[in-house]
Amino acid sequence: MGTWRSRFESLVVTAVRRHLEVDLLADLEGVDATDVRAITRLYQVLDRRPVYSNALDHIVQAVDQHYSRASPKPLTRRLLASLLDETGGHFEELGRAQEAAQCHRIAAELAPDGPDRTILYLLSAIHGEQELYTLGSLTVDAVLRALLHEVGRSGRKIRRARILAAIAYAAHSTGNIERLRTAVELLAAAADTAGYQALATFYRSRLLIAGGRVDEGLAMQREFSRAAAEVGPKDRAHQMVASALESVTPHDSAMAQASEAALRGDHVAASGWYGQSAGETPAGPFRATMRLYAEAARVQGALLPSPAALRQCLSRLCADNVFAARTITDVELVLTGLLMRAVDLHEAGHDAQIVAEVADFLGEFRGGTAVGRPQERGAYDTDARADMTLVDFLALTTAPVTPAEIAAGLPAHHVVWVHVTGAEVGEHYLTVVTLRPSDPVPLVRRTHISMADGKALAQCLDEDSEDAPAEAVRRISDLFFADIGPDAAGTRILVVPDSVTWAMPWNELAPRGAADLTISMSAAAALRSRPARAAVVPRVIGIFDEVELAGSRLEAQALDRLDAQGHIRFTRVHSLAELRDALEAAPYDILTISVHGTESDGFEYRMLLPDGPSSPAALLRLGLPEVVVLGCCWSAKSTERADTTAAALSCLVAGASQVVGGLWAIDDELAGRLLADTYDRHLRRGVPLSQALRQAHLALPPDLRPGAAGLAVIGRG
């Protein structure tokens, strides 16, 4: 009966595909990079809370930009319809009825026959016989996200339990924990047979185990096994239950063996089986994830006893392109574990070079690998494609750089890596690695963060730092720059902060005698960036909001004066189109954009240009000069997700070597005053940009400096 039923279902699925003209997801691989993945990127906007109105506007604009010129395939149309319908719902919550109606209208045009038929399309695409893990994780995520939305508004005749079970299977088989969590909650509520109830229990056990609650997960797994034994062949979920039951029984696949070994705490076996699973899986995010799990097992099992073993670990991660796993699992967590292991080895008497190598590898993951790479021409013809391409750049293969290479490439700099990590609940540590000029031996300090340290650190983060007591600033400065000293006259500093410490008042924290301070995602990124050249008469181009921003007027007036004095040639433009045309017509040395920036981060961040809002992705489509000044709030904000980027990083990806950006919402008049002085020092007196900004900062009255510290130089020092 089981075999007959399987064959019958396969025939039905094939007929449905033919009737609906649905392509298998495997057939979508050719357009995956331009369609389905772009839709997923837009879905990610809706995952953020709160959902800002400008983010919803971004979705509608991106869909209009990317899909209005083509006739999307049937599956793509359905995904777009679901996305826009969900967007319309958020507009309704914000009280924007006109925009909501527009979204629902376009959605109805794309899928006129409603959610039930859309569910048939999408279920056909994720039919269980396909090896979904071989596809792009973003592709599968888009389909699952749309299915979850459509089930919520489907008709009475739709069997929700069966659909939700199919979604749960697809999410589980592709390691999509977020979608699995949502599907399981809905499946438990919709279960109308003992079989579906048992499946909900099974997937709950998977979630518990994935969350580290192994004992609870195994107990629930045993509960599932008992319930599964009672599910008869007449139950509509019988076949799915039998398949799930088989998966909890040990069998010969490498992935299953790895899971079993990990559950019983056998890290040696788990690392071997995960490694074998990586070798058996096609190149892509899932293979990278298996490799990451293999190395995580080595960390957990104390199987990396030396710096040489850690370097071999990094080599294996690079060979399987570990950063491609960022769309599936928490890569940074495992890499942080490697960093802590490197510090343990150093404190046990081993050399410190490996600590700097792993610390910089972490920086590469946070966005450094996107910098200094050759770009495909025409890859950014729309904001949607540019946003999507940033993920590709973030997931590029990289290789660790050695302290000797960094010291040789940045011979005048102190390079400082800063990491805040948690070991146990309530226990946090600050790890600072300092590489001195022309010295390949780094200094490593791991400090337990006391309550006083933690309070001072919190006071020095983001906009709160503008009101930080002087004692808190001194305390954090001493912790970060203990191996440089408070009065190191003429010192040049390149800081590689982690995501916790990125937005800090660096020009206030720097030792008073420091000549300049630059921040970078990684030292490797700084090495790959081209050095900014000194032009005899620099060509400067800018776009300003002089109507609403007093600081923008100050900045433009300063450039006008320098132009009148013959120090620069200054061009003012008023729209993104004008800017693009000008950059294509002639080379420039500096681009400055002085407009409002929105609070959100990542690909829905908007620069409010005079001719309308623009995504940072639009910067990727410009031929950028070596220096870009973004006088926009939050333009250099560190993003909250591993697969998004800030505007400053977009500029560095597009070819700039130095970007001045706002780490938070700096007062516009103060920013204009600071930048006007910076331009005078840099363009009239010939002081290098990062040193000019540092000097302009120190020249401000002491009471204004904390507010001005939100502007920083990012990139190559």
Write out the strand line-up for the largest beta sheet, numbering strands in chain order: 3-2-1-4-5-14-13-12-8-6-7
Helix percent band: 40-55%
Estimated radius of gyration: 27 Å
The geometry reads as globular
Relative strand content: 5-15%
Uncertain segments of ≥5 residues (pLDDT<50)?
15-33
State the helix count: 30
Based on secondary structure, the structural category is alpha/beta
Overall pLDDT level: 86
Summarize the biggest pleated sheet.
11 strands, mixed
Number of strands: 14
Distance between the termini: 70 Å
Question: How is this structure best described in words?
Answer:
The structure is a single chain. With 717 residues, this protein is of the alpha/beta class. An 11-stranded mixed β-sheet has the order 3-2-1-4-5-14-13-12-8-6-7, sandwiched between helices. Strands 9-10-11 form a 3-stranded antiparallel β-sheet, with no helix packed on it. Helix 7 (137-152) runs antiparallel to helix 8 (160-173) and helix 11 crosses helix 12 (238-248). The longest helix has 20 residues, at 74-93. The radius of gyration is 27 Å and the shape is globular. Residues 15-33 have low confidence and may be disordered.
Secondary structure topology:
Blueprint: H1 2-20, H2 36-47, H3 53-67, H4 74-93, H5 97-110, H6 114-125, H7 137-152, H8 160-173, H9 177-190, H10 194-210, H11 214-228, H12 238-248, H13 254-263, H14 267-280, H15 285-300, H16 307-319, H17 331-347, H18 353-365, H19 383-394, H20 403-409, E1 413-424, E2 427-435, E3 443-448, H21 451-459, H22 470-480, E4 492-497, H23 506-509, E5 516-519, H24 523-528, E6 539-544, H25 550-564, E7 569-573, H26 576-585, E8 590-594, E9 596-597, E10 607-609, E11 612-614, E12 627-630, H27 647-653, E13 658-662, H28 668-684, H29 689-699, H30 705-708, E14 711-715
Parallel strand pairs: 1-4, 4-5, 5-14, 6-7, 6-8, 8-12, 12-13
Antiparallel strand pairs: 1-2, 2-3, 9-10, 10-11, 13-14
